[in-house]
Amino acid sequence: MQPQDLVRDHTVYACVMGSRAFGLATETSDTDRRGVFLAPTPLFWRFEKPPTHVEGPGEERFSWELERFCELALRGNPNILECLHSPLVERVDDTGRELLSLRGAFLSRQAYDTFTRYALGQRKRLDADVRTTGAPRWKHAMHLLRLLTAARDLLRTGELRIAVGELREPLLAVKRGEVPWARVEAWMVRLAGEAEQALPGSPLPAEPDRARVAAFLHRVRRASALQAEPDHQVVQGAVGAGGVGER
Questions:
Q1: Could you tell me the sign of the dihedral formed by the alpha carbons of 102, 104, 110, 113, in that order?
Q2: Which InterPro entries match (predicted)?
Q3: Mean per-residue pLDDT, 159-178
């Protein structure tokens, strides 16, 4: 089975991400698609394991195998968590619906650390741009403001909201370079400070619900194995009746 076949035949959840999901799309925006596929359990019985992620088929599409996706979500990876909260769902089956029902199990105060680390990395790149060219990459500055806003609101409310709502026009003004860097920088500092202030009283649990996610993974892996069991039994029976026991 080729990697792209896994995406085509075994996707359990697929959505649109990027500017279109955030409410920041313009006429020139790409359509970024993300998905989760469930590799059939028998593929893990081979020496060569199925891939943890697949690019394509098609442009701007990226998918994760379910276990890898859950692993990253439990770590509080911002891109993964936001994928689970996209308002633009293109495909979902029963396993995907159960995955979506677990959105709360992945959320915890650990998101503060992961979102902050990601934001700091992006901020260093912006600062480097300012030092070398005199201005940041404004699109990246816009998305960093959006991310910091989402992190602050997550810590305040316990809910991850990715649509920017009424912030659309102020953020697009940043993207167009219409807002001085000093003001953008001050906006970033304020959002980071508000997130830090929200952390001690956040309604989020200290850690994600790993046991609940592990139970989900066990169920879907077992169900996939049982679907393949009749073929497996035929092979075993042929071996038993063939030469192995007679040698």
A1: positive
A2: RlaP
A3: 96
**3, 10, 11, 6: which is closest to 33 by C-alpha?**
11
3 state SS of 238:
helix
Q: Which residues pair with 14 in a beta bridge?
A: 35, 91
Q: So what's the pLDDT on residue 236?
A: 40
Task: Identify the CA nearest to 179 among candidates 142, 146, 227.
Answer: 142
Are 51 and 6 in contact, with CB atoms under 8 Å apart? yes
Burial of 207 (0-12, 13-18, 19+ CB in 10 A): exposed
How much of the chain, in percent, has pLDDT values that exceed 70? 92
Hey, which bits of the chain come out as E strands? 11-17, 32-37, 53-55, 61-65, 89-92
Closest CA to 89 of 151, 28, 3, 11: 11
- CB atoms closer than 10 angstroms to residue 246: 6
Taking alpha carbons only, the member of 190, 186, 10, 198 closest to residue 93 is 10
What is the strand order of the sheet 32-37 is part of?
Answer: 53-55, 61-65, 32-37, 11-17, 89-92
